[in-house]
Amino acid sequence: MSVEIYEPREADLQQPHLQDEIYVIISGTGRFQNGTDLHSFQPGDLIFVPAGVEHRFLDFSPDFKTWVIFYGAAGGESNE
User: Mean pLDDT by 10-residue block, N- to C-terminus, for the chain (80 residues)?
Assistant: First the structure.
């Protein structure tokens, strides 16, 4: 498992990851693309992203900041 703070500036250019992820929104608002789903987010929200799924933060406010937690085996929980 690894934990870090993620603060993209202007655009979120991340690619799918090998591990499952959890985001815990610290500050800011915006929208989140998780596969084909699109949801708004705000401080305190928790977002789960399965390994290998295309995802990114969109239209986020300048104060956006989130904890990101990567955990488990490569390929996600379904491969454990």
Answer: 95 94 98 97 98 97 98 78
